[in-house]
């Protein structure tokens, strides 16, 4: 079976256009000669854990149809650290590399990606975890740090 490069694109609403993400990711795949790209595009908020194209992509990953996942930014994949961690754990279990083109993340030639909460990285990833109840404020967020 030919495995594909899964390219996940998401915009937050149906009013927004995914064109710039799609162009960038298509160019990125072509430069690496990943000519078997399958695009999955959702027009929904990343807060929702279940999205039609994301669900289809995860099904394809589990079926062994996917060789790697390419996204523009981690927050396109998921805005919740909890949901993103579940996706990354699934990818690790399936030995699927993750490439985030705008953030310099590429686990193709290294260990699987693990998500570790840390207070330094939220601004870089755009991913947030649930409020930190120890801080006593709804606006206090734990920040994730990527460990490769």
Topology:
Layout: E1 4-11, H1 19-31, E2 37-43, H2 52-62, E3 66-71, H3 74-77, H4 81-93, E4 98-100, E5 105-106, E6 114-117, H5 122-125, E7 144-147
Parallel strand pairs: 1-2, 1-3, 3-4
Antiparallel strand pairs: 4-5, 6-7
Pick out its properties.
5 helices; 7 strands; two-stranded antiparallel ribbon; 148 residues; Rossmann fold; alpha/beta
What structural class do the secondary elements suggest?
alpha/beta
N-to-C terminal Cα separation, in Å? Answer: 29 Å
- N-to-C SSE string, H for helix and E for strand: EHEHEHHEEEHE
Number of domains: 1
Query: Could you give a short account of the major beta sheet?
Result: 5 strands, mixed
The CATH topology assignment is Rossmann fold
Provide the CATH top-level class.
Alpha Beta
CATH architecture: 3-Layer(aba) Sandwich
Question: What is the helical fraction, as a range of percent?
Answer: 25-40%
| Beta fraction | 15-25%
- What is the strand tally? 7
Strand order of the largest sheet: 2-1-3-4-5
Short précis:
This protein has 148 residues and is α/β, with parallel strands linked by helices. It contains five helices and seven strands; from the N terminus they run βαβαβααβββαβ.
Structure, explained:
The protein has 148 residues and is α/β, with parallel strands linked by helices. The protein has a single domain, classed as Resolvase, N-terminal catalytic domain (Rossmann fold, 3-Layer(aba) Sandwich), CATH 3.40.50.1390. Strands 2-1-3-4-5 form a five-stranded mixed β-sheet, with helices on both faces. The chain has a two-stranded antiparallel sheet with strand order 6-7. The longest helix is centred in the N-terminal third of the chain and has 13 residues.
């Amino acid at each position: 079976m030919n495995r594909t490069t899964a390219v996940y694109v998401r915009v937050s609403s149906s009013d927004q256009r995914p064109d710039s993400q799609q162009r960038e990711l298509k160019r990125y795949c072509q430069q690496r000669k990943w000519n078997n790209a399958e695009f999955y595009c959702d027009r929904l908020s990343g807060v929702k854990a279940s999205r039609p194209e994301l669900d289809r992509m995860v099904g394809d990953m589990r079926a062994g149809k996917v060789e790697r996942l390419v996204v523009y930014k981690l927050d396109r994949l998921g805005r919740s650290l909890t949901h993103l961690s579940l996706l990354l754990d699934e990818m690790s279990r399936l030995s699927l590399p993750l490439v985030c083109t705008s953030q310099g993340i590429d686990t193709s030639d290294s260990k699987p990606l693990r998500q570790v909460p840390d207070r330094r990285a939220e601004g870089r990833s755009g991913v947030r975890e649930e409020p930190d109840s120890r801080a006593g404020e709804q606006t206090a967020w734990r920040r994730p740090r990527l460990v490769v």
